[in-house]
Amino acid sequence: MKYIIGIGGVTNGGKTTLTNVLKKTLPNCCVIHQDDFFRPQDTIEVGEDGFRQWDVITALDMEAMVSTVKGWMENPVKFARSHGVTVSPPSEDPERDTHILIVEGFLIYNYKPLVEIYDKCYYITIPYEECKRRRSSRTYTVPDPPGLFDGHVWPMYLKHRKEMDANCNAIVYLDGLKPKDEIYSAVFGDIQNNLLNS
Q: pTM value?
């Protein structure tokens, strides 16, 4: 059985933290991080707001991302092995073997070819002030210029969140202010329930 989980959310909401813990505890679990599909810095346009447009779908090579997801869908065992994931030996009933893919990122619910493939969708939210605090304490390869959060990042988040809410109706929203272990336990339990009932 193949099972695809989306873990989306606001910048610095805790997506990667949750994903990394789930990857360690779910069987035959692979991860595709949307951040791995950013286009080269010199190809990112500067918008009317004066900032490089990192927080828009065109900053990402979404076709390559979808192709990577399809590669997993075609052969999850081969994909797992090629990405260094240890695969459990097949059981006597291959229909019971479970392979899980987590697709993690900030715009994973804003690209229709991806939206259609998820078995379960989660989205982590945090309020403006906490998001700004977390973002300002993080170091990026390309540092945030002054004013980026208020002038670009947060407005793009609000815009994309509105689009996502209009396009997806099966998202489970998670409060990113809750303790990490509480978020993990809720998501892990939900996934286990879904797998048992599939």
A: 0.93
Distance, CA of 97 to CA of 109 (rounded, Å)? 27
**Which residues, in sequence order, are bridge partners of residue 125?**
175
Which of 35, 49, 150, 165 is flagged as catalytic? 35
Whether 109 and 167 have beta carbons less than 8 Å apart is answered as yes
Residue 178's nearest CA partner among 170, 186, 167, 169 is: 186
pLDDT in tens, 149-170: 999 999 999 999 999 988 777 8
- Mark whether 35 is an active-site residue: yes
Who contacts 188 (Cβ-Cβ below 8 Å, separation ≥6)? 22, 25, 26
Beta strand pairing call for 120-125 and 99-105: unpaired
